[in-house]
Amino acid sequence: xxxxxxxxQPVTALGxxxxxxxxxxxxxIIAMDFEEAILGLGVQAVRTAANVNEALAMIxxxxxxxxxxxxxxxxxxxxxxxxxxxxxxxxxxxxxGYRADLALFSRFAHxxxxxxxxxxxxxxxxxxxxxxxxx
Length: 135
Prior knowledge:
The protein has helices at about 30-40, 50-60, 80-90, 120-130; strands at about 10, 20-25, 45-50, 65-70, 70-75, 75, 90-95, 115, 130-135. By secondary structure, it is of the alpha/beta class. The radius of gyration is 14 Å and the shape is globular.
């Protein structure tokens, strides 16, 4: 029999890939690279948003199991998207090529961080250590 953590605590899916990943990335080449790599790791569905409005619309359409959020999206940040994912209990990792950007996201310091350029092992680790909220 499976033992569940107390209400509000995440159920960790160690070793299993999420079925649906949302990538929020404004650089099309990086987004395509992430998508190809994630699909190659066995994730069934990958969607890509280039900005906050697209990401929020995709989340409203279908809540992902996991998200990768580029911290800096041109003239905006993915902070609003991170807040929405928190409201929905969706786990996510922050992606950045500039560690200084993370100061804006200090309240998410406990979230995984994936550096750009990323190592495939790091991406796989982030995806394999995702967790989902307990119902």
